[in-house]
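From the shared-data thread, chain only:
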Amino acid sequence: MKEENISEISLESLKCISTPGGDIMHALKSFEDNYCGFGEAYFSWIEYNFIKAWKRHIKMTMNLIVPVGMIQFVFYEEKTHNFRSEKIGSDRYMRLTVPPGIWFGFKGLNKKENILLNIANIPHDPKEVEQRDISSIEYNW
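Structure, as tokens:
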């Protein structure tokens, strides 16, 4: 597996277009630099103050978008013991593109609802993801 490097994570602003009856929220277009192919898209609900950590994908590139609520993402670079934290959501509508090989976790910040969309370049495969207990990487959430 390629060595992880949290500086390779990109953060892109996304357009939210106001229209009568409800907004249009862009996510990812096939001609954008961060598009790495399509394998699967799925939504995850994250409860308020719940932390899901730690995991890293061996092959999957993730495009993470939070159309509802607010989620804190924390990325960990094992080699340097550096962290990177990003908060994205409906009030900061952006896309995080995360290459494989980076440990990460996330926490729901909105008391009502937090919905995460992952547009991944490959279908989910439990054999290509590594997981650790939350206490294995020390971080002050």
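The chain has one domain: 6-136.
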